[in-house]
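Hi there. Long-time user, first ticket. I'm pasting a complex I've been working with (about 257 residues overall). I'd like to know whether the download I got is complete or cut off, because the file seemed smaller than I expected. Thanks.
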Amino acid sequence: MRLLLVEDDMMIGESVLDALRGEGYAVDWVRDGVMADSALRTEQYDLMLLDLGLPKMDGIAVLKALRARREATPVLIATARDAVSARIQGLDAGADDYVLKPYDLDELSARIRALLRRAAGRAEPVFSYGRISLNPATHEALLDGDPVALSQREWAVLEALIARPGMILSRAQLEEKLYSWKDEISSNAVEVYVHSLRKKLGPDLIRNIRGMGYMIAKEPAPATPRKDGGGDGTHNPCTDDAADDGGAEGGDGGGGE
Ligand code: CA
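Hi, the file is complete. Here it is re-exported in full:
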C-alpha cells in the first residue's frame, strides 16, 4: 500500500513517517500543498493523510482539487482538537475521516486500516482467501491456521493481490505499492517476491498473466481432497474475468452507512 503523507511540521512528519513505514506502507512525504497537489496528479496512492494547515496551498484546497478530478482516493485529514469547524469543512470537502493532532499513532494506524478496508469494499478486518488469512492489524499471515513468516514486501505484494481477487496488477502497479520515491527498485524485485510467496503459500496462488502482470484467481481453488494424493494439477484455466474489477473506481465514496 502506498500512502501520501502531507505534513509541514518536520518533527511530526518524521515520527508519522517512521510509524507508517514500520507498518509496512510505502510512504511519500511532502511538506506543502503545492507538492501534495502535484504528487496526487502524478502518482496513484491508496490513501492520503492530509494536514490542513499547510504552506503555499491549504489542505482544503488540495482536497477540493482532488475531488474535482473525481479521484476517489481515501483521505484522512488531521486537525487540532479544538478545530471543529475545520473538521466539518474537511469532511464536507470530501475527506473520509479525520484524526486529531497531536497524533495518537496507534489510532492513526487503525483509522488508516479502516479506510483502506472500506475503499476495498470489505467489512471484515481480516482477509480470508481459501486456506490463507491475513490480518492487516497484526501483519499475521496464516496458511491452514498456521503462521507463515512474510517479509514486509512479500506481505505488501500479497495484500495488494488478495485485496482484489480476479484483478490483474501489472509489475509497475505492484512496484508503486512497494516503493516510495526514495527507494531504489531492482528490476526483478516483484518477481522475487512473487517467487518467495509461491514457495511459502503454494505454487498456484499467484498467477502470472503473460505480458500483463499478476493476479489471484477470483475464487480460491477448491480444497484438495485429503485421500490419495489429489494434486493432479487440474486448476482452472484463467478465465477472462479481469474486466470487472469489483468497483474500486468511479464511485463517489458514499461515506458509509
Ligand atoms: Ca500544519
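A couple of notes from our side: The helical segments are 10-22, 33-42, 59-68, 84-92, 105-119, 152-162, 171-178, 189-201. The pocket of calcium ion is lined by residues 8-9, 51, 53-54 (CB under 6 Å).
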